[in-house]
Design goal:
This protein is α+β, with helices and mostly antiparallel strands and 147 residues long. It has one domain (4-26, 42-145). It has 4 helices and 5 strands. A 5-stranded mixed sheet has the order 1-2-3-5-4. α1 (17-46) links the parallel β1 and β2 (52-58).
């Protein structure tokens, strides 16, 4: 079953008000693509993806919030009151996917990623990925840029 993808705002690039509606639509599409890419990477590395993923881009920061990300192994550890081990496993999994996450976000935003940070919480089951980019994301459509 695929993750439910929720769209973030995609605003905050200091655009003039009369351009905001068109640019928000472009930002929402980019946010959805980022959420899908992160979900696919989680699925590939962890064996399952989150049930919900939301990506939001604000200037040079991308945040992806993931719900229900724990693997069966992590759930088993939590059920046996071994929460520290479950969080340690989650950090190891994050380390295994860090480069792939950075590459995907860099390609989708067309901005190099300076840092990737992630953390998880067990109850409720949430994770977050934060990407710091080297510049503000340009949400102007490529066709407009060519003019």
């Amino acid at each position: 079953m695929g993750a439910k993808i929720c769209h973030g705002s995609g605003i905050g690039l200091g655009v003039a008000h009369h351009h905001e509606e068109a640019e928000v639509g472009i930002g929402e599409e980019m946010n959805a693509r980022i959420a899908r890419a992160v979900t696919a990477i989680y699925r590939g590395i962890c064996g399952r993806g989150p049930t919900t993923a939301r990506a939001m881009c604000q200037r040079n920061v991308v945040v992806v919030v993931l719900e229900e990300v724990r693997t069966q192994a992590e759930r088993s550890l939590v059920a046996r009151d071994r929460c520290d081990e479950a969080l340690a496993l989650r950090r190891e999994l994050h380390g295994a996917m860090r480069d792939e996450l950075a590459l995907a976000v860099s390609q989708l935003t067309r901005c190099p990623v300076h840092a990737v940070m992630g953390d998880a919480q067990l109850d409720p089951d949430f994770a977050v990925e934060v990407f710091l980019l080297d510049r503000v994301v340009n949400l102007t459509p490529l066709a407009t840029q060519a003019r």
